[in-house]
Design a protein that fits this description.
Four Helix Bundle (Hemerythrin (Met), subunit A), 0% strand, 5 helices, Sig_transdc_His_kin_Hpt_dom, histidine phosphotransfer kinase activity, protein histidine kinase binding, mainly alpha, HPT_dom_sf, 2 domains, two-component regulatory system
Length: 125
Amino acid sequence: MSLMALREQLNVLVNSMFLEGLLDQQFRQLQMLQDASSPGFVAEVITLFCEDSERMLTELTKLLDQAVVDYQKVDAYVHQLKGSSSRCLSALNMVKHQYYSLRSKFDTMLQLEQRIQAYGSEQQN
């Protein structure tokens, strides 16, 4: 696949994520911080986000599975993850579903970014 086709595929994916509400203007700002001196910047931030989110979702699930739920801890994790305080399992499941959808698309985005970088490296050689 050509570099142009890979970039187009990445743009289509990112645009669809915006349309679905999975990405917002903060992501555009993040993209603007990436340049030739840091070509993997966005991928690095996405990876860190996914790792942190996985950890928080695991902790939330553990907390909500306990017989006596420590809602202060749940509240702290939910604030970190979603920016609002929700204290029910259905809200957690909704966040998990949205996260896994986002994670899947981020994985595709990272693969496309890697292929684009590899293609660019091959063209320089």
